[in-house]
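Justification of resources, computational component.

The compute hours requested in this renewal are based largely on the per-chain cost of generating structure records like the one below. Each record pairs the submitted sequence with a full C-alpha cell output. That output is archived, and it is also reused by downstream analysis tasks.
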Amino acid sequence: MKKALITGITGQDGSYLAEILIKKGYEVHGIIRRSSSFNTGRIDHLYNDPEILNKKLFLHYGDLVDTSSLHRILEKVNPDEIYNLAAQSHVKVSFDLPDYTAQVDALGTLRFLDAIRETGIKTKFYQASTSELFGKVQEVPQTEKTPFYPRSPYGVAKLYAYWIIVNYREAYHLFACNGILFNHESPRRGETFVTRKITRAVAHIALGLQDKLVLGNLDAKRDWGYAPEYCEGMWMILQHPTPEDFILATGETHSVREFVEKSFEILGVTIEWQGKKENEKAIVHSIVDKNFITRGIKKGQIVVEVSPQYYRPTEVDLLIGNPEKAKQLLGWKHETSFDELVKIMTLADYNKAIKKISFNT
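The structure output for this chain reads:
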C-alpha cells in the first residue's frame, strides 16, 4: 500500500485530496498544526469514520516553520508521495502578514526539501504553486513558459518556492514538481475568499440573514475551476514518469462581477449595476420564483456595494491559463463549467443557511 503525506490536509484541497487518495487505496498521513481549538471540519467525515481513522488516515502534529517536526514525521511515515498544500494562501492577508507568509510559503518549502534530502527518503514531492506567480501578466493566456511577475507578498513567496523546487530537482535529482493551479473553488473554500464570500452572502441575503455584500474590484478576472478535479490533477502530476511542472486551468476567464450576477441568478434574482468605481452598486431588478425562499430580497434593494478597503495595493487584473501540456501529457482536463461551479457553491451555501434557520427555529 502506498503512503501519502499531505500538509494542509484540513484545507479545501487537502480534504479533497485525502478523499481521492483513500479511494485509490493509499494510506494517507496528514500534518496539522497544534491548536487550542479543532480545525478539522473539512475532514471530520473521514476522521469520524472508524473504517478510515487509524487504518487509512493518520494525523500528525507538525508545522512548516518547525524543521524538527518535518524530520520526525518523514522518518516515521517514510511516504511514497508528499503533497505540500499548506500555506498562508490569502493574497490580501499577505500584505498584512508578509513575514509570516514568507516563512510558511517560501522557507517552509525549503525546509521540507532539505528534510527530504537529509533523511535520504525516496519520495515524490508535489508543490502547490499558483497562478498568482503571473501577477502582472506578460502574455495571455499563461503557459508554463510565461515569465513570472508576482504582485503580492503571497505571489513572491510562492515564486521562491517554485524556483527552489526547480533548483533542488536539478541539483539533487529529487522528484519534485510544481503544480501551477489557477483558481479552483468549491463549497469547502474558506469564507474569506471572494468566491465563497459571494455565494455565502447571496444565500444569506436571499434568506434575510444579511443586508448586502461589500466587495472590492468587480472587474478582476480569474480562471475558475472546480477544486476536486484539480486535486485529481495533483495526483496525476506525481504519476508522470518524469518530474515536471504543469499548469492546471480551464482556459476561460470570468470577472468577479459575473460571479456575483450568476450567483444571484441561481436563486432567481436578477440584478443591475448603477454608478461607477467606488460608488457602484447592484440593485435588485427582478425576482423569479424558482422554488427558493427569497424572503430577504425585494425589488430595488441594494444588495452589493464596493469599498476601497477590499482593493489590493497591487491588483492582478487578468488570469487565464493554458492547460494544454497537462492535457497532452497527463490526460487531465476540467469537466465542470463556470456556471455549474457557481451553482454548486451557491446551492451549498443556500442549503446550509436553510438548515441553520431550521435549527434555530
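The chain has a mean pLDDT of 92. Residues 338-360 form the longest helix (23 residues).
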